[in-house]
Amino acid sequence: MIADICKRIADRNTPLENAFGLCGTAIDNELFTAMRFHADTMEVERLYSTLPVVYPVSGRKPKRDTAWGDKVLVHHQINNGFGADDIEWAFSDHETILGLGLNAVLNVPIVDRDTVLGTINFLRGGRPFNNQEVAIGQQLAAALGSRTDYLELPTSFQESLC
Predict the structure, then answer these.
(1) Tens digit of pLDDT for each residue in 41-93?
(2) Sequence-separated contacts (24+) of 59-67 with Cβ below 8 Å
(3) Which residues pair with 110 in a beta bridge?
(4) Is 23 exposed, middle or buried (0-12, 13-18, 19+ CB in 10 A)?
(5) Can you give the pTM of this predicted structure?
(6) 114-150 burial by CB neighbour count: b if 16+ within 10 A, else e?
(7) Which superfamily is assigned to 2-148 in CATH?
(8) CA–CA separation, 84 vs 107, rounded Å?
(9) To which H or E segment does residue 144 belong?
(10) Residues 6+ apart with CB under 8 A from 135
(11) CB-based burial of residue 59 (10 Å sphere; 0-12 exposed, 13-18 middle, 19+ buried)?
């Protein structure tokens, strides 16, 4: 099943909005976002959100000189956290996230030829993400990273689809 989803995600004939939607359904979550990474300014830009009222597609978030940015964007490592301390460590807007009842996070960098293109991010309440879900996240990110159109997205990608 995941192999089929990844094949559809990697297929350039699948619109990126649909590819992001497939990612968001592959792992149980209450909030899924996809971000584009701007290495020159060390910022991430939200391209997709399953909770657009709270986390709309919008401007950029600075990640320079942050432990999360260093781990995920510079060193291409997955961030798999659980509990308030991990949420606070990863997010400047931790109060909003915790207020939504979300206490588990899985951030997976999307990498193409040693270049981080962005991240896919899964959050939920209740239980942490397990090793199988982390592996699925890596497969989803690899499928997105294989798309040559990921960096071609307009700045207001989701808004342009309306």
Answers:
(1) 999 999 999 999 999 987 678 788 899 999 999 999 999 999 999 999 999 99
(2) 61/92
(3) 118
(4) buried
(5) 0.92
(6) eebbbbbbbbbeeebbeeebbebbebbbbbbbebeeb
(7) GAF domain (3.30.450.40)
(8) 16
(9) helix 131-145
(10) none
(11) exposed
